[in-house]
Design a protein that fits this description.
This protein has 176 residues and is an alpha/beta fold. It has one domain. Helices cover 27% and strands 24% of the residues. It has helices at 48-54, 58-74, 137-145, 155-169; strands at 10-18, 21-29, 35-40, 81-84, 100-104, 114-118, 126-130. Strand 6 (114-118) and strand 7 form a beta hairpin. The chain starts with 9 loop residues before the first strand and ends in a 7-residue tail after the last helix. 33% of the residues are buried. The mean pLDDT is 90.
Length: 176
């Protein structure tokens, strides 16, 4: 059972892929969507040797293990659930102690390696987690039960993209 003495926080993590590389943004909110903390990474560009060596696991390594892990570890606010719109970010769950779910409005063909947490309804997108993390199912549902029903769980990703664009204008992001 979740502790009710501390406020619940949700983490929203996305990774943008551009010609210069991958850039991550992480927004922590309360259960009705108000921002608590925001972080972003510098651009990460895998070199050709890494592309060859990591092969088909490159995206999950860069987006989940490298960018995602750094953003969550550097955050000062602990979260109860991390939501992502990027499927490779689910790899992050292997490196953090909180559940990570993939949110989507589309009805893509979902391989058996993913488990439906909640079907899409009204403002809520469909939520999936990795089948390797089935033990998180009850914990995720407990957190979701405490989230405001009018909070669209995909909306924060638009805010993250806009904040990244503003940070670029101010010269905050650079290649790293």
């Amino acid at each position: 059972m979740l502790q009710t003495s501390k406020p619940l926080h949700l983490g929203f993590l996305t990774v943008l892929h551009e010609s210069s590389g991958y850039l991550g943004g992480y927004l922590v909110t309360n259960t009705w969507g108000r921002p608590v903390e925001f972080r972003l990474t510098t651009t990460v560009q895998p070199n050709r040797v890494q592309q060859v060596l990591y092969g088909p696991t490159l995206l999950s390594f860069v987006q989940g293990e490298l960018i995602g892990k750094i953003l969550v570890e550097k955050s000062a606010t602990p979260v109860d659930l991390i939501v992502t719109e990027r499927l490779p970010v689910l790899e992050l769950r292997r490196h953090v102690s909180v559940p990570v779910v993939w949110a989507t409005r589309e009805q893509p063909p979902i391989p058996e390696s993913y488990c439906l947490v909640a079907a899409a309804e009204s403002l809520r997108p469909a939520l999936y987690l990795s089948s390797r993390q089935r033990d998180d199912l009850e914990r995720v549902r407990e957190v979701l039960a405490q989230v405001d029903e009018t909070f669209d769980l995909l909306e924060p990703f638009g805010r993250i993209r806009e904040a990244i664009a503003e940070a670029r204008k101010q010269g905050v992001t650079a290649r790293g």
